[in-house]
Amino acid sequence: MNFTAPESLIFWTTIIFVIFFFLLKKFAWKPILVAVKSREESINNALKSAEKAKLEMQNLQADNQKLLQEARLERESMFKEARDIKVKMIEDAKGEAQDQANKIIEQAQAAIESEKKAAIAELKSQVANLSIEIAEKVMRAELSSNDKQLKLVESMLGETKFN
Amino acid sequence: MVIAKKSIKLIAILIFVMLPFFAIASDGGENKEFNASELINDHIGDSHEFHIADWHGHPISLYLPVILWTENGLTVFSSSKFHHDNSGEHVVEVNGQEFVRHNEVIYYADKYETLSEEDKGAFNFEARPLDFSITKLVFSMLMSALILFLLFTAVARSYKNNKQAPKGLAGFMEPLVTFVRDDIAIPNIGEKKYAKYMPYLLTIFFFIWINNLIGLIPFFPFSSNLTGNIFFTFVLSFITFFITSFNGNKDYWKHILTPPVPKALYPIMVPIEIIGIFTKPFALMIRLFANITAGHIIILSLISLIFIFKSVFIAPVSGAFVLFMSILEMLVAALQAYVFTLLSALFIGQAVAEHDHH
User: Fold this and answer.
1) B177 touching A (Cβ < 8 Å)
2) What sections of the protein cross the membrane (chain A) (predicted)?
3) SS3 B293
4) Which long-range contacts (CB under 8 A, 24 or more apart) does B29-38 make?
5) Burial bucket for residue B167 (CB in 10 Å: 0-12, 13-18, 19+)
6) Is pTM beyond 0.80 here?
7) % chain A with pLDDT above 90
């Protein structure tokens, strides 16, 4: 191996390396390391905030779920209430109608009864009048001759027992 | 379309694999005996000029400046003045001083004459001026620093305009940066203190990696074996040592100077601990140097097989092995950068760790 001159290489290596080192340190390594580090931090922060957002999202979703559940329950209860009201209303209506009907029927019956009574009474009075007229006419016809009158007196007397 | 793309890729890979063959094929020339170890030494070593290719026996090179600290002061001239001579024959005269070059070491011409073969070498400071030349490796280092600087300032700029997910270049580089942070710095240094050392760890990681990769690309302006050079790895591991020692807290030094063992063992343990301060960066230095150089040597040896056997039929075999090794070396390039950075982080972590007392 040709050792040209140890002092040359040692001298130049030292000089070049030291200058090279300080130049690189100032113009390359510092900016690069700072940039890499700050970017790493920003990436970490971004990941952290993404994680946080995810958690928030999950919370939000859970909230939504809960709200939805509540709404569903409320709707169901409302439905139930409505159904109850409907049934009750129908029932009430039915009851009222029944009452009304009963009342009307009762009134009708009462009316019929009174009409009937009146009719009967009228009928009675007419029958009485008619019977008197008939009796009058019959009497007249029966007692138109003396014979007949005598016969009647006789029959009546015959009937009458003298005690 | 897909098939066309694939075949283009295949051809591109083949050309890249074959390129060093052309370079070497033109290296030896007709009359010279092929010498594999010389060739390998040339390729893994340093030089004053950047050899690009040979054209009709004439080498084409990028001539880099030679900067010498001589007895008369600073001297600068182009390496073209040596006219590719590396045997110490061609004398170059600059400012009244004469120099020769032998095996990529520049000597004073007059002193070189008197040197025996064993005295020649890079460590003979008597016979040569201090050499601060911009050599091939220094050139390559400057280039890699420039590439990295442009690359990462572009990445840094893209963050200014883009606050969202990274895209393009930043998207590609950011995982690497966060890898260094999350898998190297934080586990070894700790959440509290890692930030201070991040710039250093990132710098050595990418600096070593890119230079490992540059060394694997077999043509100009790449192919230099910078991270496989022990002086380069020495400087890097020395910086780690420096940071470790100067940031070491009370606990760290207490553990070294008064280790938690019976006092009778101090004469053994304290020297061991003190040696340990130095062996850690020493291991760093050797590990990177040896791994990268070994990879280069293996690839070059496989290519040299063709010229040793002097047969074209070896070429496919050795080409296949070189392809395999190149892919393996790409893994090693990243791995060694990782290991160097990891161990640096570990040593720093040990030095700054706060013990809960044991």
Assistant:
1) yes
2) 6-24
3) helix
4) B29/B57, B34/B304, B34/B307, B34/B308, B36/B300, B36/B301, B36/B304, B36/B307, B36/B308
5) exposed
6) no
7) 56
Rounded CA-CA distance B298/B20 in Å is: 13
Distance from CA of A25 to the nearest CA of B (A): 6
| A30-142 vs B168-179: helix crossing angle, rounded to 10 | 100
Q: Compute and round to an integer the Cα radius of gyration of chain B.
A: 24
Among B122, B174, B235, the residue with its CB nearest the CB of A14 is: B235
What burial class does residue B262 get, using C-beta atoms within 10 Å of its C-beta: 0-12 exposed, 13-18 middle, 19+ buried? exposed
DSSP B35: -
Scan residues 120-139 of B and list those with Cβ closer than 8 Å to A: 121-123, 130-135, 137-138
| Residue numbers of B between 296 and 355 with CB closer than 8 Å to A | none
Separation between Cα atoms, residue B43 and residue B23, nearest integer Å: 11
Where in chain B are the domains?
A: 65-133, 138-352
pLDDT, tens digit, 9 for 90 and up, residues A107-155: 999 999 999 999 999 999 999 999 898 888 887 877 777 887 888 788 8
- The helix/strand/coil state of B13 is helix
Dist. CA A31–CA B159, nearest whole Å: 8
Judge contact between A23 and B199, C-beta under 8 A.
no
ipTM of the complex: 0.83
| Structure tokens given for B307 | 């010229």
Contact residues on chain A for B45, CB-CB shorter than 8 A: 1-4
Q: By CA distance, what is A37's nearest residue in B?
A: B178
Locate A37 and state its tokens: 């580090």
DSSP B258: S
Compare all CA atoms of chain B with the CA of A13 and give the residue at the minimum distance: B232
Q: What is the largest CA-CA distance in chain A?
A: 203
